[in-house]
Amino acid sequence: MIAQFRSIILTLIVLVSANVSATGNTNDVVRQWQQWPIVGQATLSWLWLDIYSSQLRSPDGKYKLEGDISPHPVALEIRYLRDISSTQLLEATEEQWQKQGFSDEKITTWMPKLTTIFPSVKTGEKLIYVTDGTEGEFVYISNAGEQKVVGTIDDESLNDAFLAIWLSPKTEYQTLRQQLLGMNR
Predict the structure, then answer these.
(1) What is the Cα gyration radius of the chain?
(2) Is residue 50 helix, strand or coil?
(3) What is the pTM of this model?
(4) Distance of alpha carbon 83 from its chain centroid, rounded?
(5) What are the distances in angstroms from CA 106 to CA 51, 155, 159, 178?
């Protein structure tokens, strides 16, 4: 009787855990990254126009400089300071990858995935990329504070390439990189 009771309890725990994973993932991820200390922050401006403000967070508030762009969990939060269409986000991403020397073959492989993920954003809205170092999730936060996961990345090369736009030594925006990595404290 006790063995049957334990079996039922274990089955219920597994079912409840699976259900929480499937339905509560967004809140778990959002809660987790929002508690991490800020490594650094920066604002991207073009001429006199502010495009977005950004923050990099990690569990210990530090970014470890290594050959791997994302050697540990990080969250890159981008708060848009202007309306930007998903097409503009995709074009800017592709342009940055080309400038960093990623192959056309890789870019062609990655772009369809991001096409299904990137939303158009309004001034004040946020797009956050939270990664464990190999894969990650994009979390969108509307101006009303609604949060939802809009896509996931399970390809480590795409994970690193996306973060490379801001964190790579090859980035076009070196000052922004240094500020995000906390080098200008």
Answers:
(1) 19
(2) strand
(3) 0.81
(4) 19
(5) 27, 12, 12, 27
Which residues, other chains included, contact 44 with Cβ-Cβ below 8 Å and sequence gap of 6+?
A: 50, 51, 52, 53, 54, 173, 176
Cα(141)–Cα(33) distance, integer angstroms: 13
The torsion angle over the Cα atoms of residues 77, 117, 51 and 135, rounded to 10 degrees, is 40
List, in sequence order, every beta strand (DSSP E) within 38-182: 38-46, 49-57, 74-80, 126-131, 136-141, 147-153
Quick one: which of 175, 172, 160 has its CA closest to 76?
160
Structure tokens at 73: 């969990």
Whole-angstrom Cα distance, residue 154 to residue 109?
A: 13
Give the separation between CA 7 and CA 16, rounded to whole angstroms: 14
Q: Per-residue confidence of the chain (185 residues) as pLDDT tens digits? A: 444 433 333 333 333 333 333 334 444 544 588 899 999 999 999 888 899 999 999 999 998 877 777 778 999 999 999 999 999 999 999 999 999 999 999 999 999 999 999 999 999 999 999 999 899 999 999 999 999 999 999 999 999 999 999 999 999 999 999 999 988 65
